[in-house]
Design a protein that fits this description.
By secondary structure, the protein is mainly alpha-helical. Helix content is 85%, strand content 0%. The chain has one domain (3-157). α1 packs antiparallel against α3 (50-83) and α4 packs across α5. The chain is elongated and about 70 Å long.
C-alpha cells in the first residue's frame, strides 16, 4: 500500500474535526453578531439617524466577520504548526489564509503527507464564507427594510 494513502487518513482525522470546530464557532459567533445588529437597529439613536446607523452596522458586521475568519485561519495555522506541516508561525498563517480563501498562489506548501489537509481547509473556507455571505445578505436586508420603512414614514408625515 502507498504510504501517502495511509497519511490521508490522518489528514481526514485532523481536518474533519477542524471543519466542525470552525463551523460551530462561526455559526455561534454570527448569532452573537446578529443579536448586536438587531440591538443596534432597535436603539432610539439608530431610528433618528438611519443612514449613518446603517453604514456603521453593515461595516461593523463585515469587520466582525473578517476578524472571525482570521481567528479560524489561526486555528488551522496552529494545527499545521502542531503537526509540523509548516516550519514557522508566519508561514502557517499565510498558508492557512491562502487555503481558507482559495487564493493559494503563494509558493508555500504543506509537508507532502499533510497536503490533503490544505484541501480540507479550502473546503472549510467555502462553508464558512457561504455562511458569512448568507449572514451579510440578511444584515443588508435588515438595513434595506429599515431604510425603506424610514423613508415611507417620512413621506407619510409630509
Amino acid at each position: 500500500m502507498d504510504p501517502s494513502i495511509g497519511n490521508w487518513g490522518l489528514n481526514w482525522l485532523w481536518g474533519l474535526p477542524l471543519i466542525v470546530l470552525t463551523v460551530v464557532i462561526h455559526a455561534f459567533s454570527l448569532g452573537v453578531i446578529g443579536k448586536k445588529v438587531s440591538a443596534a437597529f432597535s436603539s432610539d439613536r439608530a431610528a433618528r439617524d438611519l443612514s449613518t446607523a446603517s453604514i456603521l452596522v453593515m461595516g461593523g458586521a463585515a469587520l466582525s466577520a473578517a476578524i472571525l475568519h482570521a481567528f479560524e485561519v489561526a486555528i488551522w495555522a496552529g494545527a499545521y504548526r502542531f503537526l509540523g506541516a509548516l516550519q514557522d508561525n508566519k508561514s502557517s498563517m499565510l498558508y492557512s489564509m491562502n487555503a481558507m480563501t482559495s487564493y493559494g498562489h503563494e509558493s508555500l506548501q504543506l509537508a507532502p503527507h499533510w497536503q490533503m489537509m490544505g484541501a480540507l481547509e479550502a473546503l472549510s473556507g467555502w462553508i464558512l464564507f457561504g455562511l458569512t455571505a448568507a449572514f451579510l445578505f440578511t444584515v443588508m436586508q435588515k438595513v434595506w427594510q429599515r431604510t425603506q420603512g424610514a423613508t415611507l414614514a417620512r413621506r407619510s408625515r409630509r
